[in-house]
Description:
Layout (H helix, E strand, L loop, with lengths): L5 E7 L2 E9 L11 E2 L4 E2 L20 E6 L2 E5 L1 H7 L6 E8 L9 E9 L4 H14 L2 E8 L2 E10 L2 E7 L24 H13 L12 H14 L19 H14 L36 H17 L1
Helix pairs in contact: 3-5
Amino acid sequence: MPRAIWSGAISFGLVNIPVKLYSAAKKKTVRFHQLDSADNSRIQQKRVNPNTGQEVPYEQLVKGYELSPDRYVVVRPEELEAVEAKKTHTIDIEDFVELDQIDPIYYDHPYYLAPAEGAAKAYALLLQAMKDAGKVGIARVVIRSKEQLVAIRPRDSVLVMETLLFGDEVVSPSDLGELPAVEELKAGKREVDMARQLIESLSTDFDPDSYRDEYRQAVLDLIERKAEGHEVAVQATPEAPEEVPDLMAALEASIASAKRQGGAAKEPEKRKPRAKGSSGASGNGSKPRPSGAKGSSGAKASSGAKKKRTAAKK
């Protein structure tokens, strides 16, 4: 069962709602330890004072901010706590905004907010009010000695809090020196149409369960095979694919590949208008001929003519 990593209250006007904070994501990264290749002994990392060569116990460690090389300002936990004590225990909602106004580039990490004991009614009030308003609350809170800008929104029967990057923490595209000039960011209409067709052929509804971390699974399979004593052949790294000089050829090949894999979006079949007065007519306006049915009157006439010609020959 997940454990709360923070407890405090949501400040909503004059209302305080006690809550507990839980992480809404758990990373499943495959982690390795560092070993000595001579005997596979695990390497130990120790905190050592470079001046004395002695190991420093954890309780003797303090935080220092470097002003210049080897010159620090020491700041103790209680001093950090006293800077803005309120923000360390309160999620203070400052504004409500539309969800689509938040660029996803600002999202950092998701959390769940659950009501603390005795706060269920007030929690339900805020949850339902935010659902009805269709708004997202923007708030500030201090977690682990860092002020966080957060977005609070309802998700089913729980409030989700997602930490956001501050505006000055997002790198502006103009700071990238390798972006092409604006006049170079142009494409022909035919190329754009082909690209849109490719996008349409790959379009579907988002289902997070349909995506798997294939690299992580391959690493776990490798570990399992080695643990069972199997030799693992190291395959040569494939060469990087060559650049395709013809963009249109690449687009056409991509669309054909998507169609072969069944990814092409199926368009609804267009029905031709029925002929007037023909109930149950087929698409071409003629009545469908039942299997095994006799031919039409025209067919009968043709059969009669064939008998007459046969008789004449005789």
